[in-house]
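[job 0412] stage=complex_fold ligand=pyridoxal-5'-phosphate status=START
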Amino acid sequence: MTAELRREDLHVAVRDPAAASMNFLNEVAARFPDAVSLAAGRPYDGFYVADDVERYLRVYRDHLAGTGLSASAIDRTLLQYGRTNGVIGDLIARTLAVDEGIEVPAEAVMVTAGCQEAMIVALRGLCAGPDDVVLAVEPCYVGFTGAARILGIEVVPVPEVADGLDPEAVLRVAREVRASGRRARALYVVPNFANPSGVSMAVAARRRLLEVASEAGLLILEDDPYGLFGLDDEARPTLKALDGAAGGRSVIYLGSFAKSVFPGARVGFLVADQVVVDGAGRRTLLAEELSTVKSMVTV
Ligand SMILES: Cc1ncc(COP(=O)(O)O)c(C=O)c1O
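[job 0412] stage=complex_fold status=DONE, emitting structure tokens
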């Protein structure tokens, strides 16, 4: 038996030059550690001190002790296999309420291995067959198109204009997709400081986008790793907060602690408070349903 494999026989996700760009950027950064890369959302190394990790762990252990857990239960929580959707959903829900005005129950939060896993889990759960596609702002964050590529899910682009995503263009593309017999399951967008364009959506456009999503029956995958970092005092309400305040649940919020804590921790999350109903009328939250997918990715 030959030990050589033909590259052409491997899945297109392995060979796709666009998908390989993430590895390329990481390699360049490792080779030129003093260069400031404007190509990747790579936080400044000087903000990190390894000793802080011990301090963070201590703070979290103290927090768990304060909830009444015994020393052995704390060790188990930190070190043992645990709940698939993670153990800090309550803390993330509180953070979202305080920082963003997003009100969701802890059960709607799934803690993921970086926002990247959240994208994969959401895409896998939402797109059920070959006619299910996702819309995405173009130019698009390569992590999203790459995630769709490894799952074999088609991404239909919605071109970005000078002031960000144009909701009317979303409506037009969603209608074209429907007319072609396919189902647009969701729209991916980064409303704050989009990667790669850096553009932020105006609040009026955010509100209109939510109307469009509801008209077109589209879920929104809102990716918001940079929302905290505005240098002005302009209001940047998340789509999730605006939607929730109006009683809507059309936004799945994708979060990351890579830019605010540190990327090596690989901690992100998704918030999916949409209600899922089965044939027997049993109701669950989408985040709970998606847990089966996550259990087969990172357990
Ligand atoms: C728009 C966007 N989403 C997600 C990520 C990745 O997040 P994480 O490191 O949590 O997987 C990045 C990183 O550059 C990004 O720019």
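Residues 41, 114-116, 141, 143, 190, 195, 223, 225, 256, 258, 263, 268 surround pyridoxal-5'-phosphate (CB under 6 Å).
[job 0412] exit 0
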